[in-house]
TrEMBL record:
It comes from the Bacteria. This is MTTase N-terminal domain-containing protein. Gene3D superfamilies: Methylthiotransferase, N-terminal domain. Pfam families: UPF0004. Residues 2-47 form the MTTase N-terminal domain. GO terms for molecular function: 4 iron, 4 sulfur cluster binding; metal ion binding; methylthiotransferase activity. It comes from Acidithiobacillus ferrivorans.
């Protein structure tokens, strides 16, 4: 299983969008959300 790190900037809706993206990527690609970018295989920047 690969790890995913999401960094979110901007408004409250961006936070919601990041949570949804994490959920979708978890189901569709088996990515596991982590809190440390050093541990991540995939980095996603949401602005």
């Amino acid at each position: 299983m690969q790890n995913l790190y999401i960094k979110t900037y901007g408004c409250q809706m961006n936070e919601y969008d990041s949570e949804r993206m994490a959920d979708v990527l978890s189901v569709s690609h088996g990515l596991h959300l982590v809190n440390d970018p050093v541990l991540a295989d995939v980095l996603l920047l949401n602005t």
